[in-house]
Write a structure and sequence with these properties.
- Strands 1, 2, 3, 4, 5, 6, 7 and 8 form an 8-stranded mixed sheet that branches.
- The longest helix has 17 residues.
- It is built from 6 helices and 8 strands, in the order E-H-E-E-H-E-H-E-H-E-H-E-H-E.
- Helix content is 28%, strand content 26%.
- A hairpin with a 2-residue loop joins strand 2 and strand 3.
- The chain is globular, with a radius of gyration of 16 Å.
- It is of the alpha/beta class.
- Bound molecules: guanosine-5'-triphosphate (GTP) and magnesium ion.
- Magnesium ion (MG) binds next to helix 1.
- Guanosine-5'-triphosphate binds next to helix 1.
- One of its GO terms (molecular function) is GDP binding.
Length: 205
Amino acid sequence: MMAIRELKVCLLGDTGVGKSSIVCRFVQDHFDHNISPTIGASFMTKTVPCGNELHKFLIWDTAGQERFHSLAPMYYRGSAAAVIVYDITKQDSFYTLKKWVKELKEHGPENIVMAIAGNKCDLSDIREVPLKDAKEYAESIGAIVVETSAKNAINIEELFQGIRPVVLTVCQLPGNSLISTSAASQLMALPAHLSAAVRPPAQQI
Ligand SMILES: Nc1nc2c(ncn2[C@@H]2O[C@H](COP(=O)(O)OP(=O)(O)OP(=O)(O)O)[C@@H](O)[C@H]2O)c(=O)[nH]1
Ligand SMILES: [Mg+2]
């Protein structure tokens, strides 16, 4: 029988940045122009083969509206990785992203892997956040960063494939919850198209 590894991921970020659209593109390869804001959170899974294993993404898509903010810890506390999304056409959403990173550092799991997604890169003609700013920030916090478009299916697979080696949870073996000890070395082995900053050595390893 094939081993199944579970990868627990949550999505965080301002309302309207495209978190649900990213998940919908990844799980169903579909984009809905009229998607509704998420209420509370929604849960989806996607299983992908990898060698002689199956990797099952358990994805919590949280609601970005401020009134749901207090629910977020329920989702990020059990996650091995957080995908924090901003909208490249909205500087404010990049500011909100930084607040999420701060909250994760203060209240999230100790070794949570962070991936930053600058979504709506199909709208780069009205861009407000330079990629350089996102890369520099990601590097400073040891996060993966990639620009995505849920609409045009750009870098969505790459985003999840990039965090995959870092967030594996073995569900068949008892006692395994979050894999984190080798996170730093695995991050360095990310595909070249993802900008992988080495996680700071401080208490991580
Ligand atoms: N142009 C463009 N529009 C997008 C993209 N991704 C999402 N959108 C649009 O942005 C709007 C918000 O998308 P959602 O996926 O609902 O955003 P969300 O982050 O889940 O919002 P909350 O659930 O309120 O937190 C919708 O109108 C989407 O169609 C993208 O890559 N490009
Ligand atoms: Mg949503």
